[in-house]
Amino acid sequence: MGHGGGGALSAELVEHLLVPAYGNETLAALGDCAQVTLGGARLAMSTDSYVVRPMFFPGGSIGDLAVNGTVNDLAMSGARAAFLSCALIVEEGTDMTVLRRVAQAIGTAAAAADVAVVTGDTKVVDTGHGDGVYVNTAGIGLVPEGVDIRPQRAAPGDAVIVSGPLGLHGVAVMSVREGLEFGVEICSDTAPLGGLVQAMLAVTPDIHALRDPTRGGLGAVLNEIAAASGTGIVLAERDLPVPEAVANACGFLGLDPLYVANEGLLVAFVPREHADAVLAAMRAHPHGAGATLIGECVADHPGMVVARTGLGGTRVVDLPLGEQLPRIC
Amino acid sequence: MGHGGGGALSAELVEHLLVPAYGNETLAALGDCAQVTLGGARLAMSTDSYVVRPMFFPGGSIGDLAVNGTVNDLAMSGARAAFLSCALIVEEGTDMTVLRRVAQAIGTAAAAADVAVVTGDTKVVDTGHGDGVYVNTAGIGLVPEGVDIRPQRAAPGDAVIVSGPLGLHGVAVMSVREGLEFGVEICSDTAPLGGLVQAMLAVTPDIHALRDPTRGGLGAVLNEIAAASGTGIVLAERDLPVPEAVANACGFLGLDPLYVANEGLLVAFVPREHADAVLAAMRAHPHGAGATLIGECVADHPGMVVARTGLGGTRVVDLPLGEQLPRIC
Question: What is the pLDDT at residue A3?
Answer without folding.
Answer: 73
